[in-house]
């Protein structure tokens, strides 16, 4: 009886990937280099690796791994060490709790809620960096009189203000804080394709007033501020400076 040819094998693999059946084991081809790294892994290693694949860019605490795999702490620790040695997983520290390690697949980039995004360096909010972007954004709006979000983002890239890759939502958070400080104002839907445009504030407030004196009034990441979150009142650099004053 002849073996199935490569064309038949590929069709079977493609069918399994396209139509997995609930409750039925299916098999999927993996890259050669990944197969080499996984060769010789034990059952516990595979269980931990499977959980970390499901966790994605948000990673997973060792405590959660123990609960999900129902493995003893020593077995989870040994599996993680083995997977790290084979460069299949890596450990990171998030801004939420810099003393505890999270684990994720080695090839993934941590989610924004873990790193704090562009405004954090080594788990610390980089106030100086944020202030530089504020000043540069004001210069852009002052030079052009009217600027859209895309205009400001392009200006920051063209002037090579930073090597950090800024997303549109990052630039928008800078503009929103300037708006809250009454340094600029936003005109809703006045640009092309009903885009918002930003211009210098016509009636700027004094440097210090009720809204800017209170730290939450100018916070660039207030939307992420929750108890035990990536940003919280307990770790807020604005609050510390405010209370020290």
Automatic annotation (TrEMBL):
Alphabetized SUPFAM superfamilies for the sequence: Winged helix' DNA-binding domain (SSF46785)
A Pfam family that the UniProt record links to this protein: RNA_pol_Rpc34
Entry superkingdom: Eukaryota
Membrane-spanning parts: none
Entries under InterPro entries matching the protein: RNA_pol_Rpc34 (IPR007832), RNA_pol_Rpc34-like (IPR016049), WH-like_DNA-bd_sf (IPR036388), WH_DNA-bd_sf (IPR036390)
Coiled coil (residue ranges): none
Alphabetized UniProt keyword annotations: DNA-directed RNA polymerase, Nucleus, Transcription
Subcellular location: Nucleus
GO CC terms in record: cytoplasm; nucleoplasm; RNA polymerase III complex
Gene Ontology terms describing biological process: transcription by RNA polymerase III
Protein family according to the UniProt entry: Belongs to the eukaryotic RPC34/RPC39 RNA polymerase subunit family.
Descriptive protein name: DNA-directed RNA polymerase III subunit RPC6
Biological classification of the source: Eukaryota, Viridiplantae, Chlorophyta, core chlorophytes, Trebouxiophyceae
């Amino acid at each position: 009886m002849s073996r199935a040819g490569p064309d038949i094998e590929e069709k079977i693999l493609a069918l399994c990937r396209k139509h997995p059946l609930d409750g039925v084991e299916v098999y999927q081809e993996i890259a050669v280099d990944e197969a080499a790294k996984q060769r010789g892994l034990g059952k516990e290693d595979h269980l931990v690796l499977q959980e970390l694949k499901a966790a994605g860019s948000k990673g997973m605490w060792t405590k959660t791994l123990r609960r999900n795999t129902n493995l003893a702490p020593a077995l989870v620790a040994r599996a993680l060490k083995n997977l790290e040695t084979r460069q299949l997983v890596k450990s990171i520290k998030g801004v939420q709790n810099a003393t505890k390690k999270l684990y994720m697949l080695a090839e993934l980039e941590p989610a924004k809620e873990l790193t704090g995004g562009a405004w954090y360096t080594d788990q610390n909010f980089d106030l100086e960096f944020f202030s530089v972007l504020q000043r540069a954004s004001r210069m852009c709006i002052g030079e052009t009189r009217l600027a859209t979000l895309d205009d400001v983002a392009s200006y920051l890239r063209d002037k090579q203000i930073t090597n950090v890759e800024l997303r549109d939502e990052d630039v928008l958070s800078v503009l929103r804080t300037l708006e809250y400080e009454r340094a600029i104002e936003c005109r809703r839907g006045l640009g092309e394709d009903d885009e918002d445009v930003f211009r210098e504030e016509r009636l700027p407030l004094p440097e210090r007033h009720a809204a800017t004196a209170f730290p939450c009034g100018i916070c660039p990441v207030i939307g992420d501020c929750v108890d035990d979150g990536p940003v919280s009142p307990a770790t807020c650099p604005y609050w510390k400076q405010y209370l020290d004053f």
